[in-house]
Amino acid sequence: MADQYAVIGNPVAHSRSPQIHAEFARQTGQDLTYERLLAPAHAFMDAASAFRSRGGRGLNVTLPFKGEAFRFATVLSERARAAQAVNTLKFDGGAILGDNTDGAGLVNDLSRNLGYAIAGRRVLLLGAGGAVRGVIKPVLEQEPARLVLANRTLAKAQQLAQSFGVGVEASSFAALASRQFDLVVNATSASLAGDLPPLPPGVFAPGALAYDMMYGKHDMPFLAFARAEGVVALADGLGMLVEQAAESFYIWRGLRPDTAPVLTLLRQANA
Questions:
Q1: Residue 73 half-sphere exposure toward CB, CA atoms < 13 A
Q2: Could you say which DSSP state residue 263 is in?
Q3: Pairing of the two strands 233-235 and 169-171
Q4: What is the arithmetic mean of pLDDT over 63-88?
Q5: CA-CA distance, 269 to 23, in Å (whole number)?
Q6: CA 195 and chain centroid, separation
Q7: Is 66 marked active-site?
């Protein structure tokens, strides 16, 4: 019988993960199934345990359950501990391995798909929630010249920066007015509501890349703002989605799929 995997969340009907992993399995010749699993808002552990008891081999975890998945895991990777969140669960005998592939997804999308090196660049991450926490460690490992977290609530950004120690700086949005950055990543949920983080004009350095973790058929408000600021290099989060999925696939199957054709397929479907 084919090995069983799923993405678990609430909501989850919108997830592109089944299509992505079906392409990965076809490409690598792996015999597996991958489904969407809608879990009740307060019953993640019950739903995950039931899937595991049915022979499930692993889960991708999406909102709002990444914190609960962190507590559900019995063995945590270093990057999961840094993120305090889990988006990938692997059921291996009696152990439940928890990992976080979000940061790897961002870094790999930047380096492999966009040809962008973080090393030596001034990086600004917008937000101080789970999406930011999940990528800080992998971004730091790329040795940026500076890494700044900006958030509407400064105290939250300061708390997050302090938890990672040297190399991470916190800022309010207002305090960005006289600063410029080479890479600006929107990791807030503002785009989902059609809103824009309160960025001051002039925050993008010449030749900057504007990156929104969200994706859709049309420009996110953040990317539209960047374009109006004269930014030419713009990217949404679809590549990050595919790359973090590839990292999960590697954790489960020990094989690294070729992400480029899968990303092209999704882009065509999203056009």
A1: 26
A2: H
A3: unpaired
A4: 95
A5: 14
A6: 20
A7: yes
Count of residues making up the chain: 271
What pLDDT does residue 30 have?
Answer: 98
Report the sign of the C-alpha dihedral through residues 113, 119, 120, 122, in that order.
positive
Q: Compute φ and ψ for 33, nearest 5 degrees.
A: -120, 155
Coil, strand or helix at 254: coil
The DSSP secondary-structure symbol of 230 reads T
Q: Which three-class secondary structure state does DSSP give residue 144?
A: coil
Reduced to 3 states (helix: H, G, I; strand: E, B; else coil), residue 204 is: strand
- The per-residue pLDDT for range 172-215, each reduced to its tens digit, is 999 999 999 999 999 998 877 778 999 999 999 999 999 999 98
Own/partner contacts of 253-260, CB < 8 Å, gap of 24 or more, are: 253/28, 253/30, 253/32, 255/28, 255/30, 257/23, 257/24, 257/27, 257/28, 258/27, 259/108, 259/112, 259/113, 260/113
Q: Per-residue DSSP letters for 8-65?
A: EESS-TT--HHHHHHHHHHHHT--EEEEEEEPPTT-HHHHHHHHHHTTEEEEEE-TT-
pTM of the model: 0.95
CA distance 170 to 127: 10
Closest Cα partner for 8 from 32, 24, 45, 30? 45
Given 66, 137, 156, 217, the catalytic residue? 66
* Residue in the block written with tokens 């962008």: 116
Q: Which two tokens stand for residue 200?
A: 């001051």
Structure tokens at 97: 């391995």
The sheet with strand 56-61 has its strands ordered as 32-38, 3-9, 56-61, 88-92, 95-99, 75-76
